[in-house]
Every structure is written in C-alpha cells, then in structure tokens.
Amino acid sequence: MTNIQIAPSLLSADFSKLGDELRDIEAGGADLVHLDVMDGHFVPNLTIGPAIVKSCRAQTKLPFDCHLMISEPQRYIDAFLKAGANMISIHQEAEPHLQRALQMIRDGGAKAGIAINPATPAESLSTAIEFCDFVLVMTVNPGFGGQKFIEPVVGKIRHIAQMIRERGVAVDIEVDGGIDAATAPLVVAAGARILVAGSAVFGQPDRRAAMEAIRNSVVAQT
C-alpha cells in the first residue's frame, strides 16, 4: 500500500466549533492538521494567527502543519512554534533569506517546508532543497479554499521528485489545492506523499469515509 498522509485543511472547517471539527478528523483517521495562515497581503484573504493555533493545540494530538501564506514570514516563525506548530512551511516567493528562515524553523524543533505557487518553477528549489524537510507544492493559487486543481502542476511535482532522488535528500512532497479522490492518484503517482484536502474532507458529512475514499483512490492506482 502506498504510504501517504492526509492533512485535512482547517480552512474548510466550521469555525464556530473548531474543537469538535478537530476531534472529528482525528477520530476519522487524519494524519495531520493543515492550518492555512493568510495575511491579506501575500494572498488576498485573512484567516488565522498564532492565538487560534494555540487554542486549537489543546483540542487534538494530531501534528499541526502550519502553512504561512504571509509576507515577512521570519517575523512570525517563533510565534507559531510557541503556539504548537510541528511543521511550518514558508513561501519561497515571500522570503528572500530562505535558508535562514528554514534553519529557524528547524532550530525551534519543527519540520521546515518550502511552499511554492503553481507558476513558480521546480528549478527555483535548486539552491534550498537541502535545507528543508518537505516541499509544499500548490496546485491552486493560494488564498481561497474550494478552487479547481491545476493539472499542469503534476509535471512539476514529478520534476521535484526527480530532483529529490538525484540529490539523495530526505524531503517529502506535500500537495495542496483541489485534492480529492479524483486528483489524489495523479499527485501520488508523481511523487507526493502528504495530501492536503479541504472541502473534500470537511465538506462531507462523514469525514472518515471521505478520507478513506482518498486513500482507496490511491491504492486502486498502485
């Protein structure tokens, strides 16, 4: 069986009952919780900050995967580490001192990730991939949930997977945007191992069944 992890995106949850939503996906078999942090500057939306992450931390034992879609991410790394983040990804497009920022995350005891937008080429990772633990490939343009999967990005995932193999580095590929039972097999076949799913999980009445459908779709292709 293909070893994948499913990370439901809290952006698609009911914010009036986040504790219940977190407990529901934990009971349903989620591997991680994906937390979308948006500042209204780097992306055209505002979501959550460290205080919400800290409040959620007490509600589940699942690892927290914080995706910082924000300008000047270095300024906020420490706050998210203190709030309980286990993984933090920062956008290459937003951070001119990428290696330093990644080291800050690792020094704080979390896994460090580089996030790249759909239009950012795989080659842009060539000088930093050794400094991270995972690459978060956006398969939609960041800022809003429920967007349509951008299929040409699958080729980029394949390219990044090849780069990882050639360099012999222990780096996972995470994919975020439009992931469901139809698109999951495409990205996993290309090399992704961590699948962020928003409405495909939280938009369904039975979250366990929704996550099992994604896992089964991948298994069916192997």
Structure explained in plain terms:
The protein has 222 residues and is of the alpha/beta class. It has one domain: Alpha-Beta Barrel (TIM Barrel). The protein is 35% helix and 18% strand. It is built from eight helices and eight strands. It has an eight-stranded parallel β-sheet with strand order 1-8-7-6-5-4-3-2. β3, α3 and β4 form a beta-alpha-beta unit. The mean pLDDT is 94.
List the helices and strands and how they pair.
Layout: E1 5-8, H1 18-27, E2 33-38, H2 50-57, E3 64-69, H3 74-83, E4 87-91, H4 98-107, E5 111-116, E6 134-138, H5 153-167, E7 172-176, H6 184-190, E8 194-197, H7 199-202, H8 207-220
Parallel strand pairs: 1-8, 2-3, 3-4, 4-5, 5-6, 6-7, 7-8
Helix pairs in contact: 2-3, 5-6, 6-8
List keywords for this structure.
alpha/beta; 8-stranded parallel beta sheet; 8 helices; 35% helix
